[in-house]
Design brief:
By secondary structure, this protein is an alpha/beta fold. The chain has 16 helices and 19 strands.
């Protein structure tokens, strides 16, 4: 023990010692709060090495607390060890703890010039694979120097590890799409990326439609928003047939695809406008989820649509007070050109329901600043009138560790959308409930319109309706961005909630809503 303490207290900082030895191989191991290595470690390292690691941990005061990482060398000084805290092995949040811990461990090793990392046995192998894959993410596509050096990662392979890598790689692709600046991610480029990534997958059909098709479909909202941009719009449709019953579509997803949003004539402030390159985050996460669903060969039929355009300013751009006719036939007065996401989603929702007749449909959008104020970047706000669909989304949240929070729907929001000159206004007539009125607007285009209500009808909430198609709106304006690089997060566009959508499809494949 004296020798051990002398080694730890060497005058050289420990990290420099590791660098000076040029040890470029490493392993991530887990330590629980009961001072035991994660189960299965005996198959990876010898008893003597385990004893050495535990003695080092004790000397360094490493108690296995979640979020802690300690680097050390193995006795032979041939491998760096990142010992990550996992807390109690009975913790309900063990999968999330594992995901974050493995990410922190592998990032520490990468920063210490380790080129080959193996992930030791972990209590949640899928979460460990996700953590390692997400933790090493970087976006340096446009850097001409200081490129991120690749780290080779190996796992104890099983089906859960394979699934975890697929899901995390999907989220990383969504991150790439969202982080790419708008001059390199136009509607046409986005559509081409989807074709390249999904076009060759089994049971997948990708259709990309142009402006003429959109005009033929009477998508007045998408046309109105795209008018100010010189970049041609696109409408992407992804069809995955993973089930033999081709006429049944248990799930459809619609993703907002505004590849850059200036706000139009209701122009945004200059501060933070750079984030609007990620305003197609709904489309990015939906496309990424569809890729993973196909790669995992889930036994379910899923359809996704993504309306793509820019929201810009020009002589031909839509003006405040302009009126357009939606695909549903409803006229809409544009009272704020920065409320464009719901406008393009409305046409896509109506098309998807009419064309594919899904049992459930979910739209995903970076829709409102009001949601950011309400829930911040942690939670996705969920609006749905269906308790059954909410239950499945909540279950998918727990299965993916992607937090969600149910928000209210009420007739009062419909009343706030009334226009004196059209069927609907695209924003509420009061400076309140911005996220709620946005959701209420979208609901008009899922089933028969609620725009015209009988006089004298008692206002009521809308949170117990199981009519088909069941619908949910996911406002991801908060989770679209990660402001820190803690755990498996990477500062910048987050690629969330890709894993939630994959998990939802997986659960519906196993147990459809009756």
């Amino acid at each position: 023990m004296r020798i051990l303490l002398h080694t730890v207290r060497n005058t050289k900082p420990f990290l420099q010692q590791c660098l000076s030895t040029q040890v470029h191989k490493g392993i991530v191991l887990g330590l629980h709060s009961d001072n035991k290595l994660s189960s299965g470690s005996k198959a990876t390292i010898s008893v003597a090495e385990q004893q050495h690691i535990l003695e080092q941990a004790q000397a360094l005061g490493h108690t296995g607390e979640p979020g802690t990482v300690q680097l050390m060398l193995n006795p032979a000084r041939t491998r760096q060890i990142a010992l990550v805290g996992l807390g109690s092995n009975k913790d309900e949040s063990l999968s999330e703890v594992t995901r974050a811990a493995v990410a922190e461990g592998i990032k520490k090793l990468h920063a210490n010039k380790v080129k080959e990392v193996s992930i030791g046995p972990m209590p949640c192998s899928r979460a460990a694979a996700e953590g390692a894959t997400l933790g090493l993410y970087t976006f340096d596509k446009f850097k001409t120097h200081e490129k991120h050096e690749a780290t080779e990662v190996t796992f104890i392979e099983d089906k859960d590890v394979a699934a975890g890598k697929v899901c995390a790689e999907a989220q990383n692709w969504a991150r790439d799409l969202m982080n790419t600046p708008a001059n390199h991610m136009t509607p046409q480029i986005f559509a081409r990326c989807v074709e390249e990534q999904l076009g060759g997958l089994e049971n997948v059909t990708v259709n990309v439609y142009d402006k003429q098709w959109v005009e033929d479909q009477r998508m007045g909202g998408l046309l109105a928003v795209s008018k100010g941009s010189e970049e041609p719009l696109r409408f992407v449709e992804i069809i995955y047939r993973g089930h033999a019953s081709a006429d049944q579509v248990p799930l459809a997803m619609v993703g907002k695809g505004i590849t850059f949003d200036t706000g139009g004539y209701s122009i945004k402030p200059g501060k933070h406008m750079d984030l609007m390159k990620g305003d197609m985050g709904g489309g990015a996460t939906v496309a990424a989820a569809m890729r993973a669903i196909a790669q995992l060969q889930l036994p379910i039929n899923v359809v996704a649509t993504i309306p793509l355009c820019e929201n810009m300013i020009s002589g031909g751009a839509t003006k405040v007070s302009d009126i357009y006719t939606s695909r549903a036939g409803l006229t809409v007065e544009v009272m704020n050109t920065d409320a464009e996401g719901r406008v393009v989603l409305a046409d896509a929702l109506h098309y998807t329901v009419e064309k594919h007749q899904p049992s459930a449909i979910i739209d995903v959008a970076t829709l409102t600043g009001a949601m950011v104020m309400a829930l911040g970047e942690l939670y996705t706000g969920v609006f749905t009138p269906s308790p059954a669909l909410w239950s499945r989304i909540e279950g998918a949240s727990k299965g993916s560790d992607e937090p969600v929070w149910r928000m209210p729907l009420h007739d009062a929001w419909d009343a706030m959308l009334k226009s004196p000159v059209a069927d609907l206004s695209n924003i509420g007539n009061k400076s309140e409930a911005g996220a709620c009125t946005a959701a209420a607007f979208l609901r008009h285009f899922v089933r028969d319109s609620r725009a015209v209500k009988k006089q004298g009808t008692l206002a009521r909430d809308q949170n117990n309706d199981e009519s088909l198609p069941r619908w949910a709106h996911l406002d991801i304006a908060g989770p679209m961005e990660a402001t820190t690089s803690a755990g498996y997060h990477h500062r910048g566009m987050s690629g969330r909630p890709t894993r939630l959508l994959i998990e939802l499809a997986s659960q519906l494949a196993k147990n459809p809503i009756s």
